UniProtKB/TrEMBL annotation:
Coiled coil: 108-142
Any one cellular-component term (Gene Ontology): efflux pump complex
SUPFAM superfamilies according to UniProt: HlyD-like secretion proteins
Protein name per its UniProtKB record: RND efflux pump membrane fusion protein barrel-sandwich domain-containing protein
PANTHER family to which the protein is assigned, alphabetical: HLYD FAMILY OF SECRETION PROTEINS, MULTIDRUG RESISTANCE PROTEIN MDTA
Length: 326
């Protein structure tokens, strides 16, 4: 009975002693990997003319935005305007014919009833009347075609996009389908990256808090994953994806250096420990377990957060050790 009481008191004393000791839980060490890419336009396009003609006006030069009316250039409209005038005159003539033959039809109908005219004359008048109506309908369709063609004499472009390259000059003759400019949507920028599977998984786990550093502008901006290619790149054997940034620098442009920093787990199995937990004897470092056992570790250095980075085959992340309070 006395022995049992002594044993209980010893265990209780040891438990209280351990509870008084400060412990820490080893965390897996990590290292930062910085990937570099360069910004480019969210979307790019080559602008072409749908018709041939002489350039009369240009509304955007290199580096300038497309104006609000959404036009890059206009061609000389002299001949298309004359075609429209000719069509308008034709329609007016057909309307006169319709009015005339409509009256003729009515007149011959009355004469046929009075038997003062032959039925054939009425039929001829009706045929001329319907022919004039058909010709008016044809010229009205032609008018719509001419109006659409005239609209295309001003070459449309997305408003706000920037001109990257201008391939024409005022007064120059251009052919149908000829490229005239290269445009880009720089309201948002894309940055292509090639990531390993581990890097991709880390990025996906932090997809709501991605930060991109632009060293040329000395600023950090938020980003989001825009596209992920499902294809396999045989040369790099990495996953190709694009990040998008839509806020930050006042002037967006292509070619800005962009840095993406990812925190990857250390493959050496190193852990992070408080400096106060390390005990140094001569040139060796030790960590002490709660039961008093000392584990020899290799000191790899001090992190920017003030922790010691150590490694040993006898320890792993999640193990607990004592903090030296002496």
């Amino acid at each position: 009975m006395r022995f049992n009481l002594f044993l209980l008191a010893t265990l209780l004393s040891s438990t209280l002693l351990a509870a008084d000791k400060a412990l820490f839980t080893a965390q897996a060490a990590s290292h930062n990997v910085t990937l570099t890419g360069f910004t480019r336009a969210r979307t790019a396009m080559t602008l072409s003319s749908e018709i041939a003609g002489k350039v009369e006006q240009l509304f955007s030069d290199i580096g300038q935005p497309i104006p609000d009316k959404g036009e890059f250039a206009c061609l000389d409209k002299t001949f298309i305007k004359l075609d429209i005038q000719y069509n308008t005159a034709e329609q007016a003539g057909h309307r006169v014919d319709i009015d005339y033959f409509s009256k003729q039809v009515d007149r011959y109908k009355k004469l046929v009833k009075l038997k003062n005219s032959a039925q054939q004359q009425l039929e001829n008048a009706e045929r001329e009347f319907f022919s004039a109506q058909n010709q008016l309908a044809v010229t009205q369709v032609q008018a719509k075609i001419l109006a659409e063609r005239k609209r295309r004499y001003c070459i449309a472009a997305p408003k706000g996009w920037l001109t990257k390259e201008r391939l024409i000059e005022p007064g120059q003759w251009i052919n149908k389908g000829e490229p005239i400019a290269k445009l880009g949507d720089f309201s948002r920028l894309l940055i292509p990256f090639a990531l390993s599977m581990e890097e991709y998984q880390v990025l996906r786990s932090n997809k709501d808090d991605i930060r991109i550093r632009l060293p040329d502008l000395d600023t950090i901006v938020p980003a989001r994953i825009e596209r992920i290619s499902p294809a396999f790149d045989e040369q790099s054997r990495k996953i190709m994806l694009e990040l998008e940034i839509s806020s930050g620098p006042a002037q967006y442009r292509g070619g800005l250096r962009a840095e993406l920093t990812l925190s990857l787990s250390d493959k050496s199995g190193a852990i992070l420990a408080p400096i106060s937990a390390l005990k140094q004897q001569y040139e060796q470092y030790w960590l002490k377990k709660p039961d008093g056992e000392q584990i020899r570790v290799v000191y790899l250095g001090k992190t920017s957060s003030g922790y010691a980075k150590v490694v040993s085959p006898a320890i792993k992340a999640g193990d607990q050790f004592l903090i030296n309070t002496e």
